Amino acid sequence: MKLVLFLILDLLFIFTSLYDLQMLQQNGYNNKNKYKNFLKKDYKNYSSVYLLKYLYAVTIILFEKLNLITIVLTIMVFIILLINSCISYNDHNNKLPLKYTKRLIRILSFDYLLFIIIQVFFSRLPITMLLAILMFYIALHGYILILITYILQPVEKIIYNHYKKLALTKLEKMPNLNKIGITGSFGKTSTKMVLNSILKTKYKGFYTPSSFNTPNGILLTINNEKTIFNDYFISEMGARKEGEIKELADLVKPHYGILTKIGPAHLETFGSIDNICKTKFELIESLPSDGAAILNRDDNYQVNYQLNNKCKIIWYGINNDADVMASNIKVTHKGTSFDICFKGQKKHLKVNTILLGEKNIYNILASSALAKELGLTDEQIIIGINNIEPINHRLELKNFGNVTVLDDAYNANPIGAKNALDTLNLFDGEKVIITPGMIEMGEEEEKLNMEFGKQIADVCNYVYLIGEKQTKPIYNGLVKKKFSKDNIFIFNDFKTAYEEALKTKGKKVNILIENDLPDSYTEVK
Amino acid sequence: MKLNVGVMFGGNSTEHEISIITAVQAMESINRDKYNVIPIYLSKDGLMYTSEKLLSMEIYKDLKSIEDKVKRVLLVKKKNEYLLIKDSFPYTTVCKIDIAFPIMHGYNTEDGAIAGYLEVLGIPYCESDLYASCVGQDKIYQKGVLSASGIPIVPYYFFYESEYIKDSKNIIKNIEKLKYPVIVKPARQGSSVGIKIAKNKEELTLAINEAITYDEKILVEKVINNLTELNCSVLGDNNEYFPSVIEEVYSSSNFLSYEDKYLSDGGKTPSKGMASAGRKIPADISKEIKQKIEDISVNACRALNTSGVVRIDYLMDKKTKEVYLNEMNIIPGSLSFYLWKENGLSYQELLDKIIECGIKKYQNKSKKLTSFDTNVLKSFNGTKGLKK
Q: In angstroms, how far is CA A282 from the centroid of its own chain?
C-alpha cells in the first residue's frame, strides 16, 4: 500500500516538475525575477489547486498513522492533482515544448535528486509526516526551482567562462578577422544578410543567426563555426536595456559598427528614446580608433548624438548629404534599381536588387559603405547586391510570367501592411490582395482592420478575403470607400483563394499576400 | 596566433624517398613566426607517424627502424577540428592541425589520392585538388586536356598491358608510325621512373617490358631531335597565375634520368634533389621563346585548375625552335624553390604563398553549396520511384 501511494506521489512530482521546469525555462531561468512574477500570476489563476495541496499537507500531519480514511483521502487527492498536472503539462507542451538543454538537465537532476534524498532521509519519520513534507515540496516547487537555479549560478558562470575562453581563443586564431557589429532598433537582420551577400563575393565569413544576438548566442555561434579560416564575422547586437550592447561589444571587440535606425522599439524597458540612442551608440563608442562607424545621415538621433570616439565615420543616406548616397530609385516588378554615389568618386554604381522598400535601400547603402571600406571593388559590390536573396515571406517578390506575387505573409502589423500596399501601388497592371486580416491586435483589432480595408480600397482592383467573420471589418472598410462589392471575394482557405486570384484577367497581374498563414488558417464555418 | 601546418610526406609511391627530401627541405624553411610545423610521415605501408625527429634527415638513413623512434598516429576530425591522435588506447590528442601540406610525389599520392583523402576529411590543404592532381599525373589525360586548350604536345600513342598481351604485333606497328627514336614511359609515374628510349624494335620491346613493371597504361612519344629541356614553375590559382624564370636542364643521356636528378655526384653530398641536377638559370633563350613558354605555362595551369606551385617541363627543338609541353608536375621536387629564388622570392616567402593559396582554395570551396539540407529520404517509399 505504501508503495502505491509513493508511486502516485512520484508520478505527480514528475508531471508537476516538468511543467514548472518548462515555465522556468520560458521565463528566462528567473532572469530579472521574471519567473517569480509568473509564479505570482500562476498562483492567482490556479489558487484552488495550490490550496488543495496545502490543505492536504496540513491535514495529513494531524493523523499519526495511515488508516482506511486517510488512505482513501490521500489517493483521491493525489489522483485529482495528477490529472490536473497532466492536463497542464500537455496543454503547454503542445505550444512550446520543454527544451532539454544542458542547463535544464543540471537543474532537473538537482531537483529530482533532492526529492529522492528527502524520501530517503526522512524515511524514519511517521509516514504521514513524510507525505506532508513531500506535498509541501510539490506545492512550493516553483520557489524551490528558483532556489536551485540560484545555487547553480556559480556552476553556470564557470561553464559560461569556459565557453567564453574557447570562443575568444578561436577568434584570436582567425588570421586577420574583420569583426563587424550591427545594431539599431530595426533592420539589423536584413542589413546583416545584405552585408554578408556583398562581402562574400570577395571574402569568406560567418555571422550570428538572428535569434542569437545575446552573449551566449554569440559564443555558441563562434564555437560552432566550422573553420578558423574566416575573413569577417558579423555580429548582430540586440538589447532591451542600457549596458547590454556594451556587454556584447566587449565580448566581440568589433572593428566596424553599423547603426541602422533608432526608433521606439522596447521603449518600456529602455525608458526613453535617449536611452535607446545611448545604448545603441555603445557599439560605436567601443570601436578602436582605427575602426570605422557607418551611420545614418537621415536619422536625426544619430546626427545629433555627441560621439566621444574619434574613429572614422562614414555617413549613408538618401535625403541628406552623405558619404554614400542613393539616387534615381525605381521600383518595378523585378525589384528595386538605383544608383549608389560614393563621395569623391565620379562614377555612380548602377545596382539592382530583388528587395523592395525604402528600408532595404538604407540597408544596402550601409553595407556598401562598409564593403568599400573593406576593399571591395565596385564590380564586386554590384554583383553582391544583385545576389541578395529575398527573405522568405517578407515583402518577397516572386515572378511567374505575367503574374507578380508580393509575398508578405509574415508581416502582422498595420504599418508593414500599409508599406506593402504602397509598394503594390507602384506596380503596373491589376492589383489584387489576398488577406485574412490582422489578428491578435487586441481591442483595436476591429478598428485597425477597418482602416486596413479603407487603405486597400485606395490601391487594389480585386480583394480576396479569407474567413467571412474574421474579415468583416475589412469588408466594411472597403464598402465605406465605395469599393465595388463585385470585386470582393470571400473564401474559407488560402489555397482556393490563391487559385482563383491567379485567374484574374489582365496583361499584368500583381497579387499581394498579406499576413496570410498558409496551411494552418482555415475558418471553421 | 600561429597556424598548425601538418606537412604530409612519404607514402606508398616509387618516389617515397624523394618526397622525404623535398619535405625536410621545406619544413626547414617554413616561417616559424607564423606557423607551427608538424611533420606527418606516411610509411610505405600506409601508417602515419609524427615526431620532432622527423624534421631532420638523420632519422631517414634507416627507414626500417623509424617506427620505433616516432609516434604512430591517426588523422581524425572531431567536431570542427582536425587532430592527430595516438593510434591506440587511450587515443590521446597529440596535436591539432589547421591546414595540411601534402608534399608527396608520384603515382598513388600526388595523383589525387592524398588530395581526395583530405577532401573527404574536409581539412584545408595546400596545392592542387584531386581533379588537377589526377590530370597532372596521368600523362594521357593530360595530353588530352592540354591539346584541347591549344597547347603543343609531341606526337604520341598509348596502350594498355592487356592489349599488348593480346596483340603485341599490332601495338608495335602503331608505335612505329611515330618513327624511331621513340621514348617509352609508364603513363602515371614521375621522376623519370621506368623511362627508356628505343631506337629500334629490340630496344622498344625491352623498354615496353620495363615500363609495364610500373604501370598497365603505357605512353610512347616521338623523340624530339636537337633537344633542349626547359622547365618553368608556376605559382598561384585560377584567380592569377605567375610564371617563374625558365631554366635549362642538362643531362648525361638524352633526358634527365632518375640518377641525374637524385644521385648526381655519386651520392657523396647529401642529396639536394632537383636542386643539384645540372642546370642553367635563367635559360639562354630568346625573348619570344621565353614569352611563349610563360604563356603556355599559365594556360596549362588554367586548363587543369592547379593551385599552389607546379613545375612544367618543356622540350624544345633547338633547330626548329618548336616548343612542346612534356609534362606537368603537380607537387614539384624541392617545390622548385631554386627557380623562385631567381625571381626574388625566398623559400620562406614561397611557402607562405603556397599556404595562402591553400587557405583561399578552402575558403572558396566553403562558399559553395556541396550538399542540400532537404531530406529526400523523408518520404521514401521503397526503391520503386528511384530511376525516372
A: 22
